[in-house]
Amino acid sequence: MLDIHAPEHGIHGTRDFFLHLFTITIGLLIALGLEASVEAIHHRHQRQEAETLIRNEIQNNLNRLRSEAPQATLELHQMTEVLQALEARAEGHADALNAKDFVFHEAPIQDAAWRTANSTGALTLMDYAEVERFSDAYKEQALLQTMEEQALEDYLELMPVLSYHSKDGVVSPEAAKDAIPYTRRVVAHLNGMLAVGAGTVGTYEAALKQ
Q1: Rounded to an integer, what distance in angstroms lies between the CA atom of residue 1 and that of residue 126?
Q2: pTM of the full predicted structure?
Q3: How does DSSP classify residue 169?
Q4: What is the DSSP string of 23-42?
């Protein structure tokens, strides 16, 4: 808040009046300029900090997807083989299928920096094109996260069916029949995760470009 004080001495004549008015005006302009400069510096710091945190978060997520891509491909291959074995087992073939063959890993993808920048208004201080690239990356990431959650949900529904109908870890024909629909959904979601994951990597790379 700016304080304007009355002159210490009385104003005598037009010259004193305009001199006093000029002094007040210059003082106000200087004060407003300083305030605007401080605010601009604060906004620049806020923008740089938010941008750095978002870029680091995207880079970490990108590194994670790249490092886990072979594991995701292996899980899809294994689950496809499991589905084929379940179908054979449901038809009465003697091929044994152990419940321990079912493996699925899921880990949350980080988005705290993006959500914080959005809630604090820091995104409004950034370049529009840059925010658009960040937004595309996090939208694709959210889709990937949804696919992972759906695959995990199907997997969690699948395991009790196998455990209930299995004996000594070996899946019975009845359990195989019950497990097939869940396994097909897991396979479908794993396929979707690989496709969406590739798209997410592409949006991450685009977002990190300067």
Answers
A1: 28
A2: 0.72
A3: T
A4: HHHHHHHHHHHHHHHHHHHH
